[in-house]
Design brief:
The chain is mainly beta and 570 residues long. It has a five-stranded antiparallel β-sheet with strand order 4-3-2-1-8, with no helix packed on it. Strand 26 and strand 27 (370-375) form a beta hairpin. The termini are far apart.
Length: 570
């Protein structure tokens, strides 16, 4: 990808590298800061409204004024700009902004023709391009990740929480689920006129819609307090001609459903009770005959998410295995054969085939702000697109190139609440996710999880001098659910989806707690060398103790499901 470099009041801005180069140093910008600055450069000395900025940089997402202000403030700081006496970004009250810096494209490759005729310059130019070529070859030999080239645009801007977005094969309709003040409703939108109407009733949750190959009908899961059903809706123009229930599932089974390629069968996931794992089934729509598919043994929640191959009756299944790694399988619907593909020790979700069916597309590691493509062996990974918003499960659009998903903005800040003043002050307010704060027992430090370094890491905030520092160097992509100081404030425990980490604050050493490979909940410290947490025993949550010194696990009083001891350090 050709880099675009702007010269801004003597500062060089690389749009691709997302850097500002000053006379003696270079700084890296956050993704959103770089996108805003690039838009400013392309529209220098023009009035830019907040709405225009949101449409073109945030792509129409619903964002607060504080989110925009935060990015502008950070960009001003990076440029060394003074908001009161600005030489870069001028605020236009009640309108937006104007980029008033002296801005021009910097094109170092455009040189005088007279210089090109000099032998000494030609030799230097040859060496320059050889160095560039060598650098490129070294780079390509060490990484397969490429700069994403795709563009994201918003298809809906409803007030509800939207999910399960699917475009009909003929491209005429967009179906999606929308939760707003109650149940999750199934919405149909005409892509040409923008007209929308509701397919499901107001008394239940509708999800996982899938279209027939001829776009005349779609099926979806329907749940309320008394029923679980798979429904089929037939369309006539822009109206519903009829609706029917084609399967009654166990109440509380929130699975997924899809047609096979000739629409003669449906594949669906369901569970017998909320305590049982999800399993995969196939049902013939003509005879009503259904059978359980040959599939890997289910663990934890089981086999909820699957994807049908673009041209073949094969399923891609992504599910946790016995070691709690995320495993991928290929299921042949005709031969009823399950084939293991690969596994990854990452918190990733909801794999689908690419448009050719020879690769896998998956949401990136938590917090799911990228789409990643890899081959069927889990290798040759590259990013398709990298965003600053969350990405929900993805589906293919029937144009052999594009994908559709529901996206949302996520930016958690950490605030201190003063009880006497009845007010709060943000003490950690980066433009990324900051979460799971815990204050040490001596009230001197605040520990939290942040993605300020692009991956989830542990940071410490010093209450006395308001400084912060990163203390972990995690190389995995786990999703953390809890973080707690030990009673002596020397260690931190981190609860993951499957497992617990211990982080020594002084040495920064990390190790995994040796507990059974299953979901743990309710983590707390019993004393300086003992962790308490709950594991499932015979279908019930039971409290266990883990000794850091002996690495032994003890099941304590079975009358307790969760505990959190109180302690005071003198």
């Amino acid at each position: 990808m050709t880099d675009i470099i702007y010269k801004i009041n003597g500062i060089f801005f690389s749009e691709v590298k997302q850097t500002l180069t000053f006379e003696k140093h270079t700084i890296e910008l956050e993704v959103r800061e770089s996108e805003v600055l690039a838009y400013f450069c392309k529209h220098a000395n023009q009035q830019i409204t907040r709405g225009e900025l949101i449409d073109n940089v945030w792509h129409g997402q619903i964002v607060t004024d504080n989110a925009v202000n935060r990015v502008i403030t950070k960009l001003r700081k990076a440029l060394g700009d003074d908001a009161k006496k600005s030489t870069f970004i001028k605020t236009l009250p009640r309108i937006g902004y104007k980029f008033i810096a002296n801005t021009s494209l910097f094109e170092p490759h455009k040189l005088k023709s007279a210089d090109l005729s000099k032998p000494s310059f030609q030799w230097k130019l040859t060496i320059f391009f050889l160095l560039i070529a060598m650098t490129y070859l070294v780079f390509m030999s060490n990484t397969s990740e490429v700069k994403p080239l795709k563009v994201v645009s918003a298809l809906t801007r409803d007030a509800g929480l939207e999910s399960d977005a699917v475009i009909s094969p003929n491209g005429r309709f967009l179906s999606y689920s929308s939760r707003n003040k109650g149940w999750e409703k199934l919405i149909l939108k005409n892509t040409a006129t923008g007209a929308i109407f509701q397919l499901s009733d107001n008394a239940g949750d509708a999800s996982s819609a899938t279209w027939s190959a001829d776009s005349t009908n779609l099926i979806y899961m329907y749940n309320n307090h008394s029923v679980c059903q798979i429904k089929r809706v037939f369309l006539l123009g822009n109206t519903i001609s009829r609706e029917e229930v084609i399967h009654n599932c166990p109440i509380g089974s929130f699975g997924r459903v899809a047609y096979n390629h000739n629409n003669s069968k449906i594949v669906y996931s369901e569970r017998r009770t909320p305590e049982h794992p999800y399993l995969l089934y196939v049902m013939d729509l003509h005879s009503g005959y259904k059978k359980q598919l040959n599939q890997p043994p289910p663990f934890n929640a089981g086999h909820i998410f699957f994807d049908l191959h673009p041209t073949e009756d094969k399923l891609l299944l992504s599910t946790p295995d016995e070691q709690q790694w995320h495993a991928f399988y290929l299921l042949d619907l005709e031969e009823s054969i399950s084939t293991y593909l690969f596994k990854k020790d990452e918190y990733i979700c909801c794999a689908i085939f690419n448009h050719s069916g020879n690769k896998i597309v998956v949401m990136g590691p938590y917090p799911n702000q990228s789409l990643v493509e890899m081959d069927l062996a889990g290798n040759n990974t590259k990013k398709i697109i990298n965003t600053t918003h969350l990405i929900s499960p993805v589906s293919r659009i029937h144009n052999n190139s594009d994908y559709i998903y529901s996206g949302s903005q996520l930016n958690f800040d950490i605030s201190f609440y003063e009880e006497k003043l009845k007010s709060s002050v943000a003490i950690i307010d980066s433009s990324v996710v900051d979460r799971l704060p815990d204050i040490s027992s001596d009230n001197k430090q605040l520990a939290y999880i942040s993605r300020e370094a692009n991956t989830s890491q542990v940071w410490l905030y010093n209450v006395n001098n308001n400084s912060k520092r990163q203390i972990s160097q995690f190389t995995d992509h786990q999703h953390y659910q809890d973080l707690q100081f030990s009673p002596d404030n020397k260690k931190l425990s981190l609860l993951m989806s499957y497992g617990i980490k211990l982080l020594n604050i002084g040495t920064k050493e990390t190790k995994l707690v040796k507990i059974p490979l299953q979901v743990a909940r309710g983590m707390s410290w019993f004393d300086e060398t003992t962790l308490a947490f709950s594991l499932r025993v015979e279908g019930k949550w039971r409290v266990h103790h883990y000794s850091i010194l002996t690495e032994e696990i003890t099941l304590i009083d079975e009358d307790w499901a969760y505990i959190k001891p109180e302690f005071n350090i003198e």
